[in-house]
Amino acid sequence: MPDLAVVYDSESEDEDYEDDEDEPDSDDVSNLLDFDADDEYEDSEEEENTHPSVSGKWQRLRRWVTSEIDRMYNTRYEECRDQLPRGPSYLHHVLMCLKTERADHFRANLRVSPVTFDALASAIETDPVFSNNSQNPQMPVEEQLAITLYRFGHDGNAASLQSVANWAGVGKGTVSVVTRRVMTAILRPGFMKNAVRWPTEAEKEEAKVYVAKHSCHAWRNGWLFVDGTLVPLAMRPEWYGKSYFDRKSRYSLNFQIVSLPNLRIIDFTFGHTGSTHDASAWEATHLVQDHDSLMEENEWIWADSAYPVSNSCYTAYLTATDTTKQINTWIAAPYKAPERNDPDNALFNNHVSILRIRSEHAIGYLKGRFQSLKNLRVHIKDRSSHVLATYWVAACIGIHSFAMQNEAEERRNNGISDDEYHDPFINDGLSTASSGSERGEPAPARAPTRLFLARKFREKLKEKLFRSKVRKAHARARDRRDDMGGYISDAESSSSLD
């Protein structure tokens, strides 16, 4: 038995152990076996007649040898590791070359302009998630942000972990780690409150001017739009999979987007599965919960026919001259069939669509910038992976809103108006922009009284639209008569109105 200890010692001298205390010697083995060298000669005859399997000393030795072998396999590689050769990183070419020389190619890779990229990196670089107590420093924040933006902005094979790792010149594990870090920094309340925020009075007035210009002056108080969108999942969720199955026979997540006419997102909800109706998901928006403090009297929001008149669609208020409680609607939707077949109602729906198309464009802009939202490659296996998927979309919305504000400022500094600029990202995302709930399942049942009031409110809007069209027609006829020197008779003017 001492020979075994000597052999182990001689082999251990050749090994490069980090700690000398881990090196066993003959004394350790003797203590382990409770073995006395003098006993070897005194009990030699007795040992010959004893089988090793029944000896407690041999059993303790066997356990010790087994544990040492297991420890060796757990801490050391017995063969050379098979490493994947890595090519040159395109990430550094994007950050070092394209950023300064080809801003258009930089934006195609990272989905934001170089100026916006620098502003975004400056906004999150002080976050605690980018610092650690390890002696090995993290990658620069700019590189971590670039990897995350590239991953957010691509779909299909280009968004796989291996493809992103090849593009960045890092390992697949590094891609996952830096993505989580950037998402953590983006979703901090301090960043999200500045990125996805309620508009200022000037921005609100600008939205009202747009609505009045594209409809009529009486509609200018309807300066907000809401619509739902489905974010398809690449794989069927293993965690409550049926609840993610939507009406389009896909597995998805439901998000509600509240936007301005300039396409900027100011409110949204997340965490709902694809089977959730838009009318139910809409209840979780900040706008619904704090409507009294956010919107003024006689202001409303445009929606599609999937949004019912419910408790959240009304606000009770008391006037100075009337102490009775009145119910005021603040959501307007187009007519459904069969009412929409009426010519006047069809004309009303057409003008509503002219405004609400901006809601479709807002969602298309988001998905066109971050195309990972067209087919989200997050496998939902439990609650934590569901949270990761919803946070992924929320982070994309936060970065998108931040980028829109910064890029709008860039255009103003360069003398480019918003009316002259059409971002190509909008067309890239329009194919899968809206959930199209108005063609899906009917909305939940409505209270008869509230339904009557909602229809009455919509009829008032239609009446104001028609009066505005008549006034504009009279104005055009008057201008035409003035241009002709007053030679047009009243009968001819009346016929021109028709």
TrEMBL record:
Domain DDE Tnp4: 226-400
Keyword tRNA processing on entry: no
Coiled coil, from the record: none
Gene Ontology cellular-component annotations: nucleus
Keyword Nucleus: yes
Broad class of where this protein is predominantly found: nucleus
Compartments where found: Nucleus
One Pfam family in the UniProt entry: DDE_Tnp_4
InterPro entries registered for this protein in UniProt: HARBI1-like (IPR045249), HARBI1_dom (IPR027806)
Organism superkingdom: Eukaryota
Region feature Disordered, mapped onto this chain: 1-57, 427-446, 472-498
Acidic residues composition-biased segments: 10-28, 35-48
Reported cofactor(s): a divalent metal cation
Keywords for this protein: Hydrolase, Metal-binding, Nuclease, Nucleus
Entry GO MF terms: hydrolase activity; metal ion binding; nuclease activity
Family affiliation: Belongs to the HARBI1 family.
Protein name, entry field: DDE Tnp4 domain-containing protein
